């Protein structure tokens, strides 16, 4: 898990943290949208993802729900992230890079910006025509995909105008405590930083649990982007975050409304196909050797996401 400084790769394992040992996530640097500079054309843009990564998973769910599979092709990296970063392979569930036949994701970053400084994250939405990264920020990629629904499924709208403010408010509200919060727990370098992160995480999960007692989805009866942003973390919670990231005050299966919500979204047509628990577990337990030095992937837990809702 290395990073670039002025286009030079530094392979050392480096989880950025502040003076108190709290994990610091850097902001995504490529922030364009479809429009004048990047007009949408079927097949022009290529999506690079990891099935393990929750941020990528948001983009894969929205791509699936909007039926964009044949207009936005995808490549899937190997679940193991090494000091060389994400790489392509012929492994089960992986899809190599058809654009350049690349070995590493990081090669895209220096193609887009030869003096790039920063981490080489997925998802990446790549413009084949101009040879650059349109966006590497999942929340913005899913909004762009939602805007393409007229091409395929005009009836699906995950950011309907009347619910947009509420959906965005939820997404922003649980981002740091839940989506990023599990990483803040797992990558804490001090007791103090961990205590703060785990406390914030479960306070927010309890709030969400109470909120979902009254509603099917976060904004009521309709599924919105915020539900997808929450789901990708909940899916990984019991299989990975409870043990690997020490998010273990409670499990999702112990919180009836969050557990019902997780199964509901999982069973929504088009979602289960995007969930690859083998890649998810392989990635976290094998890649973060500072957290799990043996790299051994646990067998369980047994969880039935297909259970009755
Ligand atoms: N804010 C970004 C975060 C993406 C991100 O952090 N992806 C992780 C995978 S879960 C990654 O690629 N990490 C590689 C690294 O940090 O070197 C988004 O939402 O798209």
Task: Describe the protein's architecture and organization.
The structure is a single chain. The chain is α+β, with helices and mostly antiparallel strands. It folds into two domains: 150 residues, Glutaredoxin (3-Layer(aba) Sandwich), CATH 3.40.30.10; 108 residues, Up-down Bundle (Glutathione S-transferase Yfyf (Class Pi), Chain A, domain 2). Strands 4-3-5-6 form a four-stranded mixed beta sheet, sandwiched between helices. Strands 1-2 form a two-stranded antiparallel sheet. Strand 3, helix 1 and strand 4 form a beta-alpha-beta unit. Helix 1 packs antiparallel against helix 8, helix 5 packs parallel to helix 8 and helix 8 packs across helix 9. It binds glutathione. Glutathione binds next to helix 3. The site of glutathione has 14 residues, from helix 3.
Terminal Cα span: 39 Å
Rg, Å, rounded? 19 Å
Tally of separate helices: 10
The percent range for strand residues is 5-15%
The helical percent reads 25-40%
Main beta-sheet annotation: 4 strands, mixed
Major sheet: arrangement of strands: 4-3-5-6
Supply the CATH superfamily name of the largest domain.
Answer: Glutaredoxin
- SSE string, helix = H, strand = E? EEEHEHEEHHHHHHHH
Query: How many DSSP E strands?
Result: 6
| Known CATH architecture of the largest domain | 3-Layer(aba) Sandwich
Structural class: alpha+beta
CATH class of the largest domain: Alpha Beta
Unreliable stretches: none
- Overall shape: it is globular
- Mean pLDDT, nearest integer? 95
Bound molecules: glutathione
* Number of domains as seen in the coordinates: 2
CATH topology of the largest domain: Glutaredoxin
